[in-house]
Specification:
Blueprint (H helix, E strand, L loop, with lengths): L10 E5 L8 E5 L5 E5 L11 E6 L6 E4 L8 E6 L14 E6 L11 E7 L3 E7 L8 E6 L13 E5 L12 E5 L8 E6 L4 E7 L2 E8 L4 E8 L6 H4 L6 E2 L2 E3 L2 E10 L5 E6 L12 E7 L11 E7 L8 E7 L5 E10 L4 E8 L5 E5 L8 E5 L2 E2 L3 E2 L5 E6 L13 E5 L2 E6 L9 E8 L2 E8 L4 E3 L4 E14 L8 E5 L8 E3 L8 E15 L18 E3 L7 H4 L6 E2 L14 E11 L5 E10 L15 E9 L6 E4 L18 E4 L4 E3 L24 E4 L11 E9 L12 E2 L7 E3 L3 H7 L1 E3 L4
Parallel strand pairs: 30-51, 32-42
Antiparallel strand pairs: 1-2, 2-3, 3-4, 5-6, 6-7, 7-8, 9-10, 10-11, 11-12, 13-14, 14-15, 15-16, 17-19, 18-19, 19-20, 20-21, 22-23, 23-24, 24-25, 25-52, 26-27, 27-30, 28-29, 31-32, 33-34, 33-40, 34-39, 35-39, 36-37, 36-39, 37-50, 38-47, 41-42, 42-43, 43-49, 44-49, 45-46, 45-48
Amino acid sequence: MIEENLPDGYWVEAFQVDNKNSVGLVAYGLSSGDIYLYENVSTIKASGKRTLIQKLDGPVAMDQADITGNGMNDIIICFQYGNTMLDTDPEGGKIVWLENPGQNIDKKQWKMHYVGKSTAMHRLKVGHFTQTKRWEIIGLPIVGKPYDLLSPVPVILFRQPDNIYDATEWPHEIINQQFFHLIHDAKQFNDNQLDNLLIASSEGINWLYFNQNLRQWTIKHIGDGEQEQKQQTTYYGSGGIDMGRVGNDSFAYMPAVEPFHGNVISVYTKNENNSSEQAPRKRYVLDIYGNPNENGEGPAHHLVCADFDKDGDDEFLVALRGPSPNQGVYFYKPIDISRGLFAKWKVSDDSAARIAVADFDNDGFLDFATISYNVPGYYTAENPSINIFYNRFAQQMLPDKNEIQVLKQNNDLLFKVPRPNKALQYQELPFITMNGVVFSLAIVPPHSSRQVDNNTYIKVMDGIIMWTDSSKGSHQRVTQSRQLLSEPRTVVTLEIHSENQRIRTGNEGALLMIFKTPGNINDAQKIDDMKKVIIDNSLPESYPEDTRQLDFQFIRYDKLDSSAHFKDLEFYNMKGFRIDFIDNDEHICYIQLWAAGQGVNAGVHNHEKNTFCEVHVCIINGSGKGGMHYLNSSKEVYNPLTTPDSAFEQLVLPTFYEHGPLWDIDAQNKPVLRNDSTVVYPWHKWQAGINTSFNESFDIWVVFEFNSQLAILSASNQSTLPLPNESKQTFIPNMLNTFIAILIVYIHY
């Protein structure tokens, strides 16, 4: 949820200030008139970050364009509407453009520049409708004059003047004054030369465009819209329209809300006898949501087409303002448009006046945002709010191009990964599964997010992740962060208690190791025999065959090291995984797994020959007492014959916990290195605990051996940050289960 308890709600639109900033939102209601810019919740680090752009009397519709030509998007908006479409303000219907202040965007309101007016101005579109050198605005009033719903509506073209700053009004002309009645919405698109409009009005769906050959405006009729309610409600025709692409056909189908503020969702498909884009189309009714109310209105208010699952075909979303049960957002997917066959499911229960579509979390998949419908005289939803719904298709599909490359290097897997701050898309790559626990490497691009749940545990290997903590049980919402290293000589959990079940990244992006358990870790079975540990190679089929055939098994360590200390010891090792950056082969870390039976000393050492910095993550703590034991100082001498166990500090690592640095750290928070670049450590070991309740119960842990040049301790680790208003919402169900629960909508004529 971005914001709740709004005074009203009507319009929401995705808005990018310039090509350097992430996509945010502009939202407002008709009554309060406060127009706010909301920054992208993936990037902000302050609570409730919104900026008042301007305050207008009854703002209705907006569009956006770089009017000034300075690379920053401005806003074009109409206002002073009146109370209702019947009781409109005869002096209103004004259009202004709001000048983007650039660097001072959060310090002052946007300057207004007058364009023109027409009573009851309800929708407007900015583009190039007759030429391509200057901006043009088409204004679409909903009615022609106050207290008159029957008169035709003028369609007006405003042309950009020579001087946009000093002009008292934009030159304008009436395109058409006789054809249209009760215009509720329009869809703008480009025919590869000029911008065109599909207009939803009492006449149904009509295509309005400027014919360059004839040098005149042309109207092509697409469909009549809803006609059966004409006697009952006096409303007929259409109230909302968009275009859906299927394959290479961008005009494959046109979904519509019908009639004005209607309850009918229909779709127009090409006629078999005439498949041209401008020909009349065959109409199918997909759904009827309830009955018209006492004002003759239904719950549907807006719809929008987009390719949400990246299969090359557009789906569409329908916004229902309410009341319940006809409230929320429905998702429609084409199955067979020649028969008007679509699948649908509900993806939100919140009142929706309009839908804004954008990739808000930068994962390569489109998300959507809604604002509740709260307009006195029509319908007022309870607790008006703004919500973002994140697309989960990204976690069900393989990416178009693998960000992570995998090679077989001897008997190891070599992963080559992009630097997270340069990653273009999210990718999560499972590579092994151990007794149901899936180990995955993940790249999360900057200003992105991904879903987490109670069975997800995350080790950060580069970058930073953030989330709103839901575990404190207090009313104060706190944002947590996690990065490569935690506080020295402490332990922290890899759990994520996220209020909206998502983590997000900032400018750095993140490289993650993700552990996904099949259930609650408290229910996990103890390992009393290493033969019961089952490890599968989980690399997808899209990766090289030799990498997928590589076998991983624990080997008892006395077969690898003949030292007397390890002879007949229940101590095991499994190699191995190397991770490098793909741009210059810079080494990040090497990963291997270890296992030890109860009471096993895994070997005291101080890395006198090692150049890496290691962090241990416990996968199973068999006794509940195992962990890292270390001497307090690297200057303390260790003698295996005389140094007692009591000299060691004990750092117990519960299941899915990691520890902070044990190595020495200098004033710059870097590892202290010897002259030969080895890392200065105190003597330390993994010491398995003893629990007499079990005859045997193994500890299993992962060791991350990081490049010492990258193992720099941050000034703040596992820190608390200011809180952004995050969305609690996600959408798009698991596609594997979609057709189990799906409703196939058979269409009637």
